[in-house]
Every structure is written in structure tokens, then in C-alpha cells.
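Figure caption, in words: inputs first, then the predicted bound structure.
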Amino acid sequence: MNYSKPLSVVVLLLPLLILSSPQVSLVNISESSTSPANGVTPVFSTDFENVTRRSPNLLNSGGIQDLFEYGGRGGARMWMEGLDRETPGITCHSGSRCVGMELTDIAESRRNEFNIIIRPSNLEDLIGNELFVSVWLYLPADWRLHSAYDWYELANPFFTGGPTYLPYAALHILQPDITTDVFNLDFDVRDISGTIRTLGQIVNYPLPRGRWFNLEYFVFRHPTEGIVRVWIDGTLLFNVNHLSTEDPSITSWFTTPAKIYYDPSDKFSPYRIWVDDLAIYNILVPVSSSPIAFPWESTILVAIIGVTALAVMNRIPHSAKLSPKTSDDRSREL
Ligand SMILES: [Ca+2]
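Bound structure (calcium ion present):
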């Protein structure tokens, strides 16, 4: 298996890197220009045009088992846009149907997750230890956070499927000043010991709102040499190697391509997100990279040397930003 490491940054900083620590690289805009649809066949894909709900928590999308997870006392729901509901101003990315999700009462449901279960007889047989997900997401044009030191969890590339639910990774949106539309994007992990690490942060990220955007990520599952890469609209944003992405004692895991989850201090509702055109691959799909200059490039972390510096720069208390899945739900029913 040959996943090329990031190029110039690793070369330049190699003497400084702690090789046993996870590393984050500079955005590499020269990666392959082959699009995911070009010659690569997904093991599963859906445009949701013929998808219905099997239950309040499950889709009838065929082929894979999904699970919309939230508390059982109300306050969260998912629906088929164009079938169950027609939200003014919302046009699905493809066709006339997509998935809508909302969290309306954080006191009742702590999260709203679109989980795809990966275990034997469901997807694991198809993907093995390599997962590549492409999904289109939509956040409202006026999307923002609503409390100081708030955080919002957009997706989990991987999440261990049983107690202690470690390790896992999360993509977070931060808004240091909620009176201005300036956002940061973080890549965080909680490792198998429970230690939280911010492994990448993009300051002043031009968060796509009021339009569909393409989230793509790759996970190589391995106890110590795992890999996670994250792209949005074809731009590689996070590239982490030497990462624990697997607890070898726990077989099942899942991936969460869309999620609503935020700090309890935020009482705003409803938070909404729409999902369309999901594709799952079992190899690292070459992703095209935008040829434009990135105004936020200079603020991207170029390497991680230990974790201390990151903890200092991160304004959000780690204990609040990521919580064990088993302890932060007021109500949790599967
Ligand atoms: Ca669609």
C-alpha cells in the first residue's frame, strides 16, 4: 500500500517532526486531477431519488444500513426533502429528493447523526479497511453559531462502534466571534486512550453557506498507522498520517457524513442541514484540486510538532468540544 506522504512540507520539516505523533500537512494542490467519478466505481451510491424512510431513524436506501441517531424524546428529526416535506428555498443537489435533518431542541436531543454502519455483512465486506466517502451537503445561507465558545460538529470520518467508542475523528466549525461571519475549521481526534487532539485548524475558512458543497474524506483504518484526508469542493484541507483509527478489539465502526451537534450553551433552533448524492468507495479516490489560490492558505497548520502548541491556539476548551459518546447525551435511544 503506497499512500504518498505530503511532499515539500514533510521534507523541510522532517528533522523536527516527532515521527510517532500524528502529522498534518500543508494543502497539496498538485495531487491528481482525476475526479472521483472518472474511472472509479463506488461500492454504494445513491442520489436519494427513490429513497423513503423506513422509520423515523432509518432510510430505505438499500444496500447499506444507515441510522439517524438522536434522543428519543423529540427535538430532532430527518425527512426526505421533496417527499415528506418541501422546505421553501431548498433545491436538492440532484433531482427532487434529498435528506433533510434538523435539531430543534438541544435539551431533548443532543445530536442528529447520519450514521452509516460498517460491520460484517454491512459494508465492511465491501470496503475492508479503506473508506472513501463523497457527499453533498447544504447549510442555510444565514447559518451561524449562536453562543460564545460554541462549536458545531459537521461530520465524523470514522467512529468506533462500541464502548468506549474510541478512537474517533470530528470535523468542527468554530466561529470565534458570533457577531461576524468568520469561521474556523478544525480536524480533531480523540485517541484510544481518550486524549483529545486538534490535528488541524484552518482559520478564516470560507465556509460554504447557501449552496451545496462536496465533502469528501478518506479513512485508512489501522491501530497506529491510520490515515485521514478531508476535502471540501476538491481542496485537500486535512491530511493526517500515523493516526490511530482503529481499536483492534472492536470490530464494528461507522462513519457520519452529516451531523448536527453543538455546544449545550447554544439554545438556537432549528439547526438544519441537507444531504444528497452520497457515494462510498473502497479505495483512495484521486480528488481534483482547485487551481485557484487559497486566501486562507497561510493560516493552515503546516505540521504538528507535539500537541501542546495546538492546545494553546485552540480557543475552545477541549473538554467541551469533544465528549465521549456515552456520556454527553441527555437522552439516547437507538
Ligand atoms: Ca437527489
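Residues 153 and 244 are 20 Å apart (CA to CA).
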